[in-house]
């Protein structure tokens, strides 16, 4: 194997050879199934729970003209944007503190950051369900101050629960970027008379923007497909699109409509991510200039 690598490492196709196993894996287990689902989205549903091959847009029309489904899609986008912004605003200070703090136990906070990742989404969502319920700990504490407000089945409750899932990913991504910053640039900013706030605004934050952009995209994409949290915390008062796709495919056995709904969700997600990357690129260029 070593001799094969040494013999072909200078060839132009060497990169394709190394990426071959991954590309084959993605082709067989991602792109081909995705293509099949896309094809199914044009099939015609049969009431007996099957489908017949056809080329019809009725599934897309049914989804796009449904107030229920479009309302759920709008709520999904709204919660995804708000949850992502909230996650980044909370995660950046945590990552910054872990990387730059002189506190002797700051590195131990990394364990606390990744701890939620050791628990499955369903278990975590059920935990929030118990905490946010009318008899849960959060409602009990609020009651001590005379506040009668239940977070369960509300948008604020959804944002809190979703952000708890996203924060470990966001913090780790931001930490990986902050650790790679050139310490000499930060030190030079201080030597030139910059205070901590000026150094952060004009040096640290611009240099860490790639991490912010990456964490934002990952958080947004994960939220758009939220299922367990949506079922336990949001439904039915705060509907998101993923539970509806599940119900259409598994309960109604309408696979063509479920496939069409999935691809509309995918298209909206990709379009929003593309627009965000364009705006982020412009902002990064302006900061660099």
From TrEMBL:
Q: Which of UniProt's keywords are assigned here?
A: Cell membrane, Membrane, Transmembrane, Transmembrane helix, Transport
UniProt name for this protein: ABC transmembrane type-1 domain-containing protein
Taxonomically, what lineage is the organism? Archaea, Methanobacteriati, Methanobacteriota, Stenosarchaea group, Halobacteria
Q: Which residues form the ABC transmembrane type-1 domain?
A: 73-276
Which species is this UniProt entry from? Haloprofundus marisrubri
Lipid bilayer topology: Multi-pass membrane protein
A Pfam family name for this chain? Answer: BPD_transp_1
The family note in this entry says: Belongs to the binding-protein-dependent transport system permease family. CysTW subfamily.
GO cellular component terms listed in the entry, alphabetical order: plasma membrane
In which domain of life is the source organism classified? Answer: Archaea
Principal location: membrane
Residue ranges of coiled coil: none
Q: Which parts pass through the membrane?
A: 21-43, 79-99, 111-130, 136-152, 159-179, 199-222, 227-246, 258-279
Keyword Transmembrane helix in the entry? The reply is yes
Database matches in InterPro entries: MetI-like, MetI-like_sf
